[in-house]
């Protein structure tokens, strides 16, 4: 029954990894039912102190009843044959069908015939249940997440150098930094509330320097003291060149390096092969600018902010590590205003890693490759063992489905038919899989038509749980209104399938999923962190309620979490020393050549989010960029004979795409840019069927060998006037 009073509920923004606190206003909506009526920033939340960006501030508009009536998945649907439309059905029938089909496929083809593809938009509790279902119940590590497209190179970079997947900094460091070094990130668009904080810190401290390394002159670069428009993919050469300057000018913190690190001699030998002139030539930058950046960096305190420009690369782990090396070499870590700070793209990529919801991870940052870690997780779950064989990561999972090796796909809260690279392969996978379950709050995604079973999930403002933001801060997400129509929380759907499946696969045994609430799931996750780097045994839902969001670690007995890690110079490696691992620069997997002479990169716009399931329902958010464009330098546009508004065929080694041209003098000649948000409903220009796949028709599935993150930031293309 609708409640008649307007109410306020504290929760967290569902978009980016800054994790801003919001206050949701709810009450009777236009249709008389309980509805979200307004949203404002939570003044008490330490991530944003009341600020919201354009996306967060319009969350309520995307939750209007008339919007939801068009956009939301309302009831379970199943189809009995691929050539038949799905029909609505009840939850019990849909869940029984899913459990029965998964059991059949697992019994016939083994546990690894199942692939579960989840999302950094899920809450920690959702992630936990999915991960236990895959690894504990079914016995496969074939669970991965769209966070693989986002943060896995940052994870691998931290682990390689510092020994643990733990961003060592906090937002407060912006107020203490002398130099902010932004690499491969555009926080003015992608993390606007953090960028506002940076702007305020610069106003308060006019001596603060902002250096931005980015091939594009983004809004962030526009405001920088020094912009380094490096050639796409040349980040490692830039960082080695900066280290060479530091070595030449005696700016390396030799005492710190000797006391707290290992492996510097090999890196020093490599850096001496990259003197500033060589780095400048490789990066296409003035040597003086590289030298200036190196001096400011070493002077510090220096805070690096980095994101997909480093991560989405076939050498993403090397790029992350090479930047962290600069912090270690100059002792710019473990103190206020200093450290390498990866900006999380999604709202809960961190939480997903914390529960081990990826193909190569286990609960609480345990490592799948470690026999001891596997035994600990098995003991926590009351099982004799958990599987050792590494699972398929995001792109590999769909490649395996396209090859017929994975036969059932369960996709939750993500839209791989738009967001994964090499869309033709992805769509072959979705067609070839014998059974596809899509669990989503939205009905209109490019993936939904492939669903044999569609399970409607409740969305933001309708579910309880937690998320972890970029600075390791755990915040509550709270339900302000009931789930839309017949939708259910993601953890509850996963539990309900799991309970049915365990009745078939391990009958008569106590349930592995005895959860009646999100809090019970979280409590089990909390216990799994005991003694780990992310120990939160001192935290509880009650503490989050009473004292607000908290950073990890927060072990039993602690009063608060740690703002900064590694202040004592001890790192999370076996010997306590941070590691330098020398890696020479590597070219992108698809270097440009005379056949494909342009380097295509992608990125976010200021007012849109991911595939626009939610932001695409808010007309105001199209004021900034009303339609997709392919941006190129005016000189390149002139060379191929196009101007603003003309169309070009952009063709990669995989597909062709018709796109409208926008000239942008902020791009390097030879580089072209397209926003990541638009899919097949939007792109297509003149109606070419080949164009009806979105920008990821073109992108490359090449992976970083360590992180398995695809190289979404670099695809070689050719352009032809359409
Ligand atoms: Fe939401 Fe990120 Fe904007 Fe904050 S900065 S309001 S978390 S999208």
Automatic annotation (TrEMBL):
Native organism: Luteimonas salinisoli
Highest taxon in the source lineage: Bacteria
Keywords: 4Fe-4S, Iron, Iron-sulfur, Metal-binding, Molybdenum, Nitrate assimilation, Oxidoreductase
GO biological process terms held by the UniProt record: cellular respiration; nitrate assimilation
First-to-last residue of the parent protein present: 8 to 729 of 931
GO molecular function terms noted in the UniProt entry: 4 iron, 4 sulfur cluster binding; metal ion binding; molybdopterin cofactor binding; oxidoreductase activity
UniProt record similarity statement: Belongs to the prokaryotic molybdopterin-containing oxidoreductase family. NasA/NapA/NarB subfamily.
Name of the featured protein: Molybdopterin-dependent oxidoreductase
Cofactor(s) for this UniProt protein: Mo-bis(molybdopterin guanine dinucleotide); [4Fe-4S] cluster
Annotated 4Fe-4S Mo/W bis-MGD-type domain residues: 6-67
A single Gene Ontology CC term: membrane
């Amino acid at each position: 029954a609708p409640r008649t009073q307007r109410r306020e509920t504290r929760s967290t923004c569902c978009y980016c990894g800054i994790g801003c606190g919001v206050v949701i206003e709810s009450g009777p909506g236009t249709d008389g039912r309980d509805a979200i009526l307004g949203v404002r920033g939570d003044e008490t939340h330490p991530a944003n102190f009341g600020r919201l960006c354009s996306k967060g501030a319009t969350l309520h508009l995307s939750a209007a009843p008339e919007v939801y009536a068009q956009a939301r998945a309302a009831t379970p649907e199943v189809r009995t044959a691929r050539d038949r439309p799905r029909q609505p059905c009840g939850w019990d029938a849909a869940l029984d069908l899913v459990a029965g089909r998964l059991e059949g496929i697992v019994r016939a083809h083994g546990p690894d015939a199942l692939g579960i593809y989840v999302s950094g938009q899920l809450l920690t509790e959702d992630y936990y249940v999915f991960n236990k279902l895959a690894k504990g119940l079914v016995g496969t590590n074939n669970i991965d997440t769209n966070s693989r497209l986002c943060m896995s190179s940052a994870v691998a970079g931290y682990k390689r150098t510092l020994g643990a997947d733990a961003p060592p900094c906090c937002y407060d460091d912006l107020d203490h930094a002398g130099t902010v070094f932004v690499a491969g990130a555009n926080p003015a668009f992608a993390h606007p509330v953090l960028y506002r904080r940076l702007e305020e810190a610069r106003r308060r401290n006019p001596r603060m320097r902002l250096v931005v390394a980015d091939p594009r002159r983004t809004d962030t670069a526009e405001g920088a003291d020094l912009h380094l428009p490096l050639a796409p993919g040349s980040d490692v050469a830039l960082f080695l060149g900066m280290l060479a300057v530091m070595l030449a000018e005696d700016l390396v913190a030799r005492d710190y390096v000797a006391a707290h690190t290992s492996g510097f001699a090999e890196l020093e030998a490599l850096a001496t092969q990259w003197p500033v002139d060589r780095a400048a030539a490789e990066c296409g930058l003035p040597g003086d600018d590289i030298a200036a950046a190196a001096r400011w960096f070493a002077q510090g305190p220096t805070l690096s902010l980095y994101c997909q420009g480093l991560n989405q690369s076939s050498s993403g782990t090397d790029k992350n590590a090479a930047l962290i090396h600069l912090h270690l070499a100059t002792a710019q870590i473990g103190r206020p205003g200093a450290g390498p700070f990866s900006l999380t793209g999604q709202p809960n990529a961190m939480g997903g890693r914390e529960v081990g919801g990826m193909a190569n991870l286990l609960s609480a940052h345990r490592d799948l490759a470690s026999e001891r870690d596997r035994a600990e997780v098995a003991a926590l779950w009351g099982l004799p063992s958990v599987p050792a064989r590494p699972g398929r990561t995001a792109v590999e999972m769909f490649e395996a489905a396209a090859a017929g090796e994975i036969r059932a796909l369960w996709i939750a809260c993500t839209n791989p038919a738009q967001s994964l690279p090499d869309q033709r392969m992805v769509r072959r996978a979705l067609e070839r899989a014998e059974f596809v379950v899509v669990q989503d709050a939205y009905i209109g995604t490019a993936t939904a038509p492939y669903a044999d079973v569609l399970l409607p999930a409740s969305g933001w403002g309708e579910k309880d749980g937690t998320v972890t933001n970029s600075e390791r801060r755990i915040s509550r997400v709270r339900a302000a209104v009931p789930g839309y129509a017949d939708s259910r929380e993601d953890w509850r759907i996963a539990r309900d399938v799991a309970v049915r499946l365990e009745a078939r696969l391990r009958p008569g045994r106590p349930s592995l999923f005895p959860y009646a609430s999100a809090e019970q799931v979280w409590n089990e996750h909390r216990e799994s962190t005991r003694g780990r780097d992310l120990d939160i045994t001192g935290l509880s839902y009650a503490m989050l309620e009473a004292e607000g969001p908290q950073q990890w670690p927060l072990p039993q007995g602690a009063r608060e979490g740690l703002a900064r890690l590694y202040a004592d110079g001890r790192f999370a490696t076996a010997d306590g020393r941070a590691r330098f691992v020398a890696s020479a620069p590597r070219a992108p997997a698809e270097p440009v050549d005379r056949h494909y002479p342009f380097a295509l990169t992608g990125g976010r716009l200021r007012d849109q989010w991911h595939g626009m399931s939610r932001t695409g329902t808010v007309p105001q958010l199209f004021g900034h960029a009303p339609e997709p464009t392919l941006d190129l330098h005016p000189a390149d546009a002139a060379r191929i004979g196009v101007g603003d508004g003309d169309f070009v065929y952009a063709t990669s080694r995989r597909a062709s795409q018709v796109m409208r041209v926008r000239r942008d003098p902020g791009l390097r000649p030879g580089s072209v840019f397209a926003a990541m948000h638009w899919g097949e409903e939007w792109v297509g220009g003149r109606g070419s069927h080949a164009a009806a796949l979105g920008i990821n028709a073109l992108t490359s599935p090449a992976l970083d060998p360590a992180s398995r993150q695809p190289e979404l930031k670099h695809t070689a293309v050719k352009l032809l006037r359409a």
